[in-house]
Fold this protein.
Amino acid sequence: MTGNDNRGKPVGIEDVARAAQVSATTVSHALSGRGQVATATRERVRRVADELGYAPNRLASALRSRRSNILGFVSDDIATTPYATRVVLGAQSVARERGQLLVVVNSNHDADAEADQLAGLLSAQVDAILYARMFHQEPVQLPDQLYSIPSVLIDITDAQGRVGSVVPDEVGIGASATRTLLDAGHRDIAHATVSRPGPGANGRIEGYERAMREAGLQPRVVMGGDPPDAHAGRVALSRLLASDAPRPTAVFCFNDAMAMGAYQQAGAAGLSVPDDLSVIGVDDFEPIAAGLMPGLTTIALPHFEMGAWAVSTLLDALDGDLAAAPPIAVLPGRLKSRGSVRPPAALA
């Protein structure tokens, strides 16, 4: 490996090509993600470019291709929320792989700030915009700027149906969580959820009820209030325990924070998780799910996958592949088994 001999002079694409022993065109394709380049060659070119400190000349590239190779990522507070930052990581992963720069801005729920951020990104001539929300929300009227540039939505849908989006499969997540408990032998399974309706709450209830009825069982939904935090989980479980109905042997909680509250309320009532009560959540929020004793079995939301899908879809559209993306992509969750689910005591 030879270094750059012209010290003080910016490393150019020809320097990378010479060091990697390929053509400048191959370097361009390897770094941009376009063209047919063997995987080993692509990796070698990128390694050489990193070692030489090569930075693509985006202005020159934009003049040639009429593209800036810059994507804007606009969110309400997804960028400052621990588990939802995986959306950004997924987007960054694909953006880097395909030679794009991802610029992330965060409005903190300030509509005026968001309008200024969108205007700034458009002035900077970004090629496309990813518009994200922290929680799966109802269809909304989008800012007009999003209709003037290729855009894709994350965790939200367009009330006009003009902009494509990617969301979690909330019904599938509810069904998967419930079937995990059914497969462990539970038949008296309750669902602890929030009071405020929305795509997440409604979809998970639907999936839970569908799985229960398919098993010939009666659903039992209890609401713990809003927001969906540990307090709501404690309230929901206390209502279940105070009911005249038989105590459930398992609880599917709307999210990991409510599951933590269910753990706390179970302990206060002298119940052990999972010996007396199995608990499953949604999110796979590591500080909670891995920090509880025993660890919480949960359905991981597809945050990383949604970010990756959004960037791939935008870049495919920019490259002319307009038929690949559905109006709304629905991605499944993934079961993360830990220690909070076991067969009910009668079967153990």
Summary: The two ends are 62 Å apart (CA to CA). The domain at 13-56 is CATH 1.10.260.40 (434 Repressor (Amino-terminal Domain)).
